């Protein structure tokens, strides 16, 4: 397993080249993802989608970006101008910085020299924690953008977005713990190297499922796009933004989509390792093939984002928060306890693995049954409330008219 000593020794021009390449890749990926989303959703809805600007409409995203840049830039009179201008930067800069620790591939030789360098800008002993930290910084930009706009709708959108992202960041962080226990490291490159035989998405499937749900909520994407609920908040935290500043929020959203997809690929799908059965080929993980495997896996997750947007309706806000705090987090904690127990026994011995897995499966079935019992009780309570509302109501029973009891939504 490669160590962290291979990082930090590149020449300054090579580091600058890597940073520029990452920036260019993210910008092109964003333009492509916007086009792909519009085309795929159009196909799902039996429409055409972008087809005029460029071949197959590929330049439509670029045309939209130019329109936003050239559009008149407005600042509300009641806005705090300094914070209003800085908020989009606080959101978009961490989105790009996160990719500094994402491994695109193993160590490779530059085609014009004999220099070997890892296909990664840098790495840290706590690389995954760095990703979470950058995501947390982005939340400040959203809150400040909503607060500094001087609009009630923007403020409510910012508060809802921050509550949503913070809640699902907890579940996202808990889903990483099982990966850390198996890999024995928080470094992204070492986690990928530890998956050379089997992917953690298979042996740690509950963590993978929790992460996939959390990453959709973290990026404010449908069906969890509650901060932008048009019927309630007009447009969310960026209601008062226009022109280039709105474009930065839009850019950060699509970069974050790619970021969580790349992180899922790194932690659960083997990173740049070739998928089975291509992995049996000796040259599958050599040259620049790993970059293609990595980008292919990322694009699969991007398609899942688009698929969800074109398929599922938006959830109610209380249902969404209730699901995160009362379902995802308890399941994540119980799964971490089970994984830690299994890992300790596996390292120290003392019990056969099949009996351990059977006990864990029984515990998961019991816990799932308890969740269904709780949902049944809530459903019965809602039915009782509905029957009470449907009963005959005498407004003059107390001698004077009173309004009927409020209905449970």
UniProtKB/TrEMBL annotation:
The keyword Transmembrane helix applies. One of its GO terms (biological process) is aerobic respiration. Keywords: Cell membrane, Membrane, NAD, Quinone, Translocase, Transmembrane, Transmembrane helix, Ubiquinone. Belongs to the complex I subunit 1 family. It is a multi-pass membrane protein. It comes from Kribbella rubisoli. NDH-1 shuttles electrons from NADH, via FMN and iron-sulfur (Fe-S) centers, to quinones in the respiratory chain. The immediate electron acceptor for the enzyme in this species is believed to be ubiquinone. Couples the redox reaction to proton translocation (for every two electrons transferred, four hydrogen ions are translocated across the cytoplasmic membrane), and thus conserves the redox energy in a proton gradient. This subunit may bind ubiquinone. The chain crosses the membrane at residues 12-36, 82-104, 124-145, 166-186, 198-217, 246-268, 288-308, 320-342, 354-374. It is found in: Cell membrane; Membrane. PANTHER family: NADH DEHYDROGENASE SUBUNIT 1, NADH-UBIQUINONE OXIDOREDUCTASE CHAIN 1. This is NADH-quinone oxidoreductase subunit H. GO terms for molecular function: NADH dehydrogenase activity; oxidoreductase activity, acting on NAD(P)H, quinone or similar compound as acceptor; quinone binding. NDH-1 is composed of 14 different subunits. Subunits NuoA, H, J, K, L, M, N constitute the membrane sector of the complex. GO terms for cellular component: plasma membrane. Its main location: membrane. The keyword Metal-binding does not apply. Its EC number is 7.1.1.-. It is an enzyme of class 7 (translocase). NCBIfam families: PRK06076.1-2, PRK06076.1-4. It catalyses: a quinone + NADH + 5 H(+)(in) = a quinol + NAD(+) + 4 H(+)(out).
């Amino acid at each position: 397993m490669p160590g962290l000593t291979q990082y930090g020794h590149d020449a300054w021009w090579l580091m600058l080249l890597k940073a520029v390449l990452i920036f260019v890749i993210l910008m092109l990926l964003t333009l492509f993802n916007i086009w792909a989303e519009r085309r795929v959703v159009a196909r799902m809805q039996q429409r055409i989608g972008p087809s005029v600007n460029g071949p197959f409409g590929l330049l439509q995203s670029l045309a939209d970006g130019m329109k936003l840049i050239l559009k008149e830039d407005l600042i509300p009179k009641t806005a705090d101008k300094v914070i209003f201008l800085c908020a989009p930067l606080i959101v978009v800069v961490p989105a790009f910085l996160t990719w500094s620790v994402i491994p695109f591939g193993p160590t490779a030789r530059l085609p014009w020299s004999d220099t070997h360098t890892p296909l990664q800008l840098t790495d840290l002993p706590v690389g995954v924690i760095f990703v979470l930290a950058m995501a947390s910084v982005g939340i400040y930009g959203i809150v400040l953008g909503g607060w500094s706009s001087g609009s009630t709708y923007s403020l409510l959108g910012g508060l809802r977005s921050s509550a949503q992202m913070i809640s699902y960041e907890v579940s996202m962080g808990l889903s990483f713990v099982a990966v850390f226990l198996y890999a024995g490291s928080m470094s992204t490159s070492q986690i990928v190297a530890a998956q050379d035989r089997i992917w953690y998405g298979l042996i740690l499937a509950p963590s993978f499922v929790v992460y996939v749900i959390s990453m959709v909520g973290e990026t404010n994407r449908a069906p969890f796009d509650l901060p932008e609920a048009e019927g309630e908040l007009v447009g969310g935290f960026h209601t008062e933004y226009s022109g280039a500043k709105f474009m930065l929020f839009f850019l950060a959203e699509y970069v974050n989509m790619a970021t969580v997809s790349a992180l899922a690929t790194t932690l659960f799908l083997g990173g740049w390792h070739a998928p089975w059965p291509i992995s049996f080929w000796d040259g599958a993980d050599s040259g620049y093939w790993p970059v293609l495997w990595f980008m292919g896996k990322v694009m699969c997750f991007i398609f899942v984002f688009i698929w969800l947007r074109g398929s599922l309706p938006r959830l109610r806000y209380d249902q969404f928060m209730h699901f995160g705090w009362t379902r995802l987090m308890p399941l994540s904690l119980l799964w971490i306890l089970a994984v830690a127990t299994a890992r300790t026994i596996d390292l120290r011995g003392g019990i056969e693995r099949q009996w351990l897995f059977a006990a864990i499966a029984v515990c998961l079935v019991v816990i799932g049954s308890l969740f269904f019992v709780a949902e049944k009780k809530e459903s019965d309570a809602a039915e009782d409330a509905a029957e009470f509302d449907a009963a005959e109501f005498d407004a003059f029973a107390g001698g004077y008219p009173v309004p009927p009891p409020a209905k449970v939504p």
